[in-house]
């Protein structure tokens, strides 16, 4: 038996998220269908996590078991020939049977993109949140630094989050400018449901002067005492990399 690890890139615009579900076509379902056609039988993918509807990925990690001896190239080039244009396998490799993409992960890197132009951009509309008006970047960076470290992020999750603990370790939150875009790069050991999007929504409120960095510190020191900012739209979020 072989354990094959895939790095998958996808545009999540037209999908109901990563996980197979009854209310729409998912990335996982599309991948498993293509793998089944390639290997002439059902295949089950195990991923490093889930992404919601509309969220993108450059580095989703997934594995599957097979007794097929087809060359590794078939799981990248061959599989890509069966996948739609908005999903692709960036790389494939054989890993030890005990490797698990979720339980062995040490951390993840998400990037959230905000478009800063005064007018809407047709080219940016599917991959960035269009935020008009001035933003106080110094205040946003000050608030971002307060999010780094181990904190109780209970105020930064949406309903339906089934996590047993809301304590998470955040290694970095960087707010950077790139052309007409603002990039928020978040690296950490793990994340609650919609946590990154709520972090970004809170930072935007700080940038607009509707919330102070001190108010963000209060959210972390007294979780549940008040609510975080709005959940940023899903299309600005991309899973960049999973660390092992």
TrEMBL record:
Keywords of this entry: Isomerase, tRNA processing
Keyword Membrane: no
CDD domains registered for this protein in UniProt: PseudoU_synth_EcTruA
GO biological process: tRNA pseudouridine synthesis
Superkingdom of the organism of origin: Bacteria
InterPro entries, per database record: PsdUridine_synth_cat_dom_sf, PsdUridine_synth_TruA, PsdUridine_synth_TruA_a/b_dom, PsdUridine_synth_TruA_C, TruA/RsuA/RluB/E/F_N
Chain ranges of the Pseudouridine synthase I TruA alpha/beta domain: 7-104, 143-244
Active-site residue numbers: 52
Residues noted as binding substrate in the record, renumbered to the chain: 110
GO molecular function, one term: tRNA pseudouridine(38-40) synthase activity
Pfam family, one: PseudoU_synth_1
Enzyme class: isomerase
EC code: 5.4.99.12
Family: Belongs to the tRNA pseudouridine synthase TruA family.
Subunit-level organization: Homodimer.
HAMAP family in the cross-refs: TruA (MF_00171)
Function recorded in the entry: Formation of pseudouridine at positions 38, 39 and 40 in the anticodon stem and loop of transfer RNAs.
Name of protein: tRNA pseudouridine synthase A
Name of the encoding gene: truA
